[in-house]
Design brief:
- The chain has 13 helices and 10 strands.
- The chain has 2 domains: 97 residues, Rossmann fold (3-Layer(aba) Sandwich); 176 residues, 3-Layer(aba) Sandwich (Rossmann fold).
- The protein starts with a strand and ends with a helix.
- The strands form 2 sheets. It has a 6-stranded parallel beta sheet, sandwiched between helices. It has a 4-stranded parallel beta sheet with strand order 1-2-3-4.
- It is α/β, with parallel strands linked by helices.
Amino acid sequence: IVLVQGDTTTTMATCLAAYYHKITVGHVEAGLRTGNIYSPWPEEINRKIATAIATYHFAPTDRARKNLIDEHVPAEKIFVTGNTVVDALQYVTKKINSDTRLRTQLLSQFSYIDPHKKLILVTGHRRENFGDGFKNICQAIATISKRKDVQIIYPVHLNPNVKIPVESMLSGLPNVHLIDPLDYVPFVYLMSQAYLILTDSGGVQEEAPSLGKPVLVMRNATERPEIIESGAGIVVGTSCEKIVSEVNELLNNQDKHSKMSFIHNPYGDGKASIRIVDKLEEI
């Protein structure tokens, strides 16, 4: 059996390679859907191809399971496990909290963080946001940065469609730190220090609630509607006005921020990997 995870193009290609060799495929994080093949692009089609090829489907939620059943996947081949991203996050968080040397290194790496300001962590890389979308996002960040009570950290994706507009519009602004992309451990540390997170990422939508961080989703649609329905996240799209409005609301309204921070993450309890292994052993 070949196990694939998520909705990247490498996941799709691996499914095809396994299919050509007549090897059984198991898909982890199966059943996520927006219903729009161009949002996110190309991930929506990648995961639909994975579903078409896979024999075993490890869905993170009941909603994802229903999506698969609606596409005529046999119910007995679908297993609701939670998502492994939550497992990884909990593992790394425990490591950061228990390893004094590691924590000292992280404190040194991010020594410029001002504990007296509210930290906003930004990530952005989504293809459908290239062009005007990223320009709007950058304009929103520039506007928010004028507040004296915030600090913005943005690990900038290396894709020129991201890097060029971000650096041209945000370099040198007060309260904005543009940094190189991060490995997972320091990124988890930054998430843990953030007051709120602005992102167009899929995985971050699951990680943020696990850490008690409100997440604003800079996309027009999300394949993770459970986050929005639970109240842990808000879809803001790439409208400059909407992004600025929702960020200011969370910065100014402590009650709203607290309410979003204490919502249970619908994507798992950190035991997805164990459930997947147990099912594979049964198979």
